[in-house]
Amino acid sequence: MGKLYEGIDGPIREFIEAQRVFFVATAPTGADGHVNLSPKGCDSLRILDEHTVAYLDYIGSGVETIAHVRDNGRITVMLCAFDGPPKIVRLHGRGEVFEPVDHGFAALRSRFPSAPADGVRAILVVHVTRIGDSCGYGVPLYEYTGERTQLDAWSKKKGPADLEKYQRDKNRASIDGLPGLRWVQEKS
User: Fold this and answer.
1) Checking DSSP bridges between strand 120-134 and strand 45-49, what pairing results, if any?
2) Which residues lie closer than 8 Å to 162 by C-beta, 6 or more apart?
3) Looking at the 3D structure of the chain, how many domains does it have?
4) CATH number of the structural domain spanning residue 40
5) Burial class (CB in 10 A: 0-12, 13-18, 19+), 82
6) Rounded CA gap, 182 and 84, in Å?
7) What is the pLDDT of residue 185?
């Protein structure tokens, strides 16, 4: 039986901080859009306070999460234990997007380690409204063997100018046509 928590503290905080991967789910407003579920890693999640988390959003080929959060704010972060005792934690909340040109981005960015070739396109802040756990008995055990190196190598090989072009080409809109990165829209 799952349990609800008042805030991200004590054992729940320790559990979240120990996980090496998490998943983010969003959906656009309306019944016709695509639901999105994205895996995240690279030491990119931080607990800001008992009701707020933030994560680095790396440059990628899609922009669904950013578009959905800007559309309706709904977001869920899920973490599950792949080793140790079984457990799943879901953080339901309202998201906020900070792009590098936004006020507050630099202060948030200072809370994280340096990113792969600093290929960070945004920071998503989640204002958590519900914290719940469940058993996780069906989640298999996996052994962590390290981080992948491809993101850093890809970002370095592209360089700043090509990364900017890539985002203009790939992050203008979601697959459902919702606006993506704001700076890309403004440069159009």
Assistant:
1) unpaired
2) none
3) 1
4) 2.30.110.10
5) middle
6) 41
7) 83
3-state secondary structure of 116: helix
Q: Per this entry, what is the length of the chain? A: 188
- Say what the pTM is: 0.95
Kindly provide the b/e burial profile for residues 155-179, where b requires at least 16 CB atoms within 10 angstroms of the residue's own CB. beebeeeebbebbbebbbebebebe
Give the single-character DSSP code of 101: T
Dist. CA 74–CA 28, nearest whole Å: 9
Q: Domain containing 11: what range?
A: 3-186
Report phi then psi at 15, rounded to 5.
-60, -50
Q: What pLDDT does residue 186 have?
A: 82
State mean pLDDT over 174-178.
Answer: 96
Nearest to 77 by CA among 21, 10, 139: 21
